[in-house]
Amino acid sequence: MIVTLTANPSADRAVLLPGPLVPGEVQRADSSREDAGGKGVNVARVVSAAGAPARAVVPVNDHDPYRLLLDDTGVALDIVPVSGRARANLTITDPLGETTKLNLPGAELSADEAAALTAGVVAAAEGATWLVLAGSLPPGVPETFYADLISAVRERWGAAAPRIAVDASGPALAAVVATARPDLIKPNHEELAELVGEDAAVDDDVIAAATRRAAALVPERVASALVTLGADGALLFDAGGAWRGRAPKIQVASTVGAGDSSLAGYLLADLEGATAPDRLARSIAYGAAAATLPGTQAPTPADLPSGPIAVTAFSTPTATS
Ligand SMILES: Nc1ncnc2c1ncn2[C@@H]1O[C@H](COP(=O)(O)OP(=O)(O)OP(=O)(O)O)[C@@H](O)[C@H]1O
Ligand SMILES: [Mg+2]
Hints:
Elements (H helix, E strand, L loop, with lengths): L1 E4 L4 E7 L14 E6 L2 H11 L4 E7 L5 H8 L2 E6 L5 E7 L5 E5 L7 H14 L5 E5 L10 H13 L5 E5 L2 H10 L4 E2 L3 H7 L10 H10 L8 E5 L5 E5 L2 E5 L12 H14 L4 H17 L18 E4 L7
Parallel strand pairs: 1-4, 1-8, 2-6, 4-5, 8-9, 9-10
Antiparallel strand pairs: 2-3, 6-7, 11-12, 12-13, 13-14
Helix pairs in contact: 1-8, 3-4, 4-5, 8-9
Bound molecules: adenosine-5'-triphosphate and magnesium ion.
């Protein structure tokens, strides 16, 4: 069982324009679709679509239209009732694939609601193989929310606690890495740079920069890191080594949610007992499949690229070099 938390859920509306987006103009869209978004929901959808058991813990107001979108996903849900409504995230794509995203702030969680959400996740984590903490934190909760939640889950379930994967950014991810030693993080290139206090914009060798940064974290502060690099594929680091996999050439429809599908692919392979290079290959295949689908549509095994994903092992500098 894979249990996910989406602390700051969103209704994701994807809009397809017939031409480039022009600020200040009225433009007609060719089409639009709305999906229950939120990274934890996305991961649970992909895992479920592959036939593996998943549950999504989500704070939702019963009268929120988002609840209907959630029900449409068919994912098993653990709803924690809250007073606020889910935010909307808008993705605008033009015919050349140029994408503009507007992510609205979420509703504030009260201290009581945050405590109920923690209790809901701790209960849902019973017997799970993985717990996935994914996406931003809602306003009102401390930056240490994920880090504190990891402590609460491990304290409650001890040796039977699930392994914990975190796909977050900024202070929430920094707090996890500082104190909670997660089993897996899934940063993209920018998130990894930010995590070690560097600027990804100045990198001329993306692979070397990501490798140096990951080596400073793995395995002391995080047991393993899956670093996704968009069209450049992904890297996997753990105590046993480092691997690089290349992404297949694909026709991109929308890269929104590609990282969530990557994480789901990795976890699906892990549930089957796959080796590190095979976990990385499955992750890249799922990320690429997600990028070929519009919006945040969840890829199924039938959507995976047909050819093999090339993965090679390489050596890393040690954390102290
Ligand atoms: N243009 C692309 N071509 C091929 N594969 C891609 C492309 N973009 C993304 N992918 C696949 O998806 C994976 C994840 O992409 P990316 O690194 O952009 O995730 P992300 O930044 O975490 O995205 P998000 O958080 O929006 O889901 C990549 O490792 C790769 O396998
Ligand atoms: Mg991501």
